[in-house]
Amino acid sequence: MKLKKFIAVLGVAAMMTGLLAGCGNSADEGNADGGSEAAAEWDSANDITIVSREDGSGTRGAFIELFGIEEEVEGEKVDMTTEEAQITNSTSVMLTTVAGDEYAIGYVSLGSLDDSVKALKIDGAEATAENVKSGTYKVSRPFNIATKEGADNEVANDFITFIMSTEGQQVVEENGYIPLDGTQAYEGTAPFGKAVVGGSSSVSPVMEKLIEAYKEVNPNAEIELQTTDSTTGMESTINGSYDIGMASRELKDTELSEGLTGQVIATDGIAVIVNNDSTVDELSSEQVKSIYTGEAVTWADVVE
After folding, report:
1. Fewer CB within 10 Å, N or C, the chain?
2. Where in this chain does the record put each PBP domain (predicted)?
3. Pairing of strands 140-148, 260-274
């Protein structure tokens, strides 16, 4: 009799163990499907993925100058960006690279910023057009266009008149950039013909909008837009491939000496960006410099 009771107890115990195991397996399956277990937290001990633009990029040129990453060595300015940095060749690639790596840091034109990444406060100031205009956010640079002395493309000249007009500067402002003051209404001649505009991938988005707006007031014109980089934009304008060059920086003395004339069409901020999963919300200018020169290797080096 005692033996039968003992066997019965063992049976119940085995059945309970099986039920518990089944419940455990169900819970594990739920976790595997993303059910109840939270994702791993962002860890500042991880290495920083440093993302920069290519040589020739006006955004890179302005970025390294504004953050002191460009230093004078034996009388020459030298870009001290770490060799560990990943190089991207356009604004769009920069955005997708940082959006796809939770430990990445990069930089883009403020007007190109979208919600796929997070813009950091720099020295306590948010990266907004209002703060650029007020001078609170100091990481800013001019957007320039350039033409070659002696070149006479009627469509290009009329398009520039539109860009610098009240209507053109309204397009600039509507797209998140700082417009020029003291503009006048557009008074164009609606010429027939074609002009080629090319250069900086940072200027390109607002230039595309300006071209669309210009075609509404002058359907006779064809404006071709080629997106490259600031240096290519200036070189191609010098050699006549472009009627109008775009640069997201000041024109260099060497470019001016080759006969280029520059005009500022807008002011733009440079947003320092991180992945949306990053817990970092703010850095100082010195911290940004330490990252891009390779002094800071992990996020803990700058946030803890």
Report:
1. N
2. 41-167, 193-301
3. antiparallel
What would the two tokens of residue 133 be? 């205009």
CATH of 49-140+270-303, one of 3.40.190.10, 3.40.630.30, 3.30.70.1350, 3.40.50.1820: 3.40.190.10
Instruction: Enter the tokens of residue 239.
Output: 């050699």
- Residue 120 to residue 131: CA distance in whole angstroms: 13
What would the two tokens of residue 162 be? 């539109």
Residue 79 pLDDT > 50, yes or no? yes
Residue 72: pLDDT band by 50, 70, 90 thresholds?
A: confident
Contacts of 72 (CB under 8 A, 6+ apart): 78
Examine the pLDDT at 263 and tell me if it is beyond 80. Answer: yes
Query: Could you give the dihedral angle defined by the CA atoms of residues 147, 149, 151 and 155, in that order, rounded to the nearest 10 degrees?
Result: 40
The 10s digit of each residue's pLDDT in 156-172 is 999 999 999 999 999 99
In the numeric block, which tokens belong to residue 89? 């060749």
Cα–Cα nearest to 217, from 173, 170, 147? 170
DSSP bridge pairs for 82: none
Give the residue among 229, 196, 225 at the shortest CA–CA distance from 90: 229
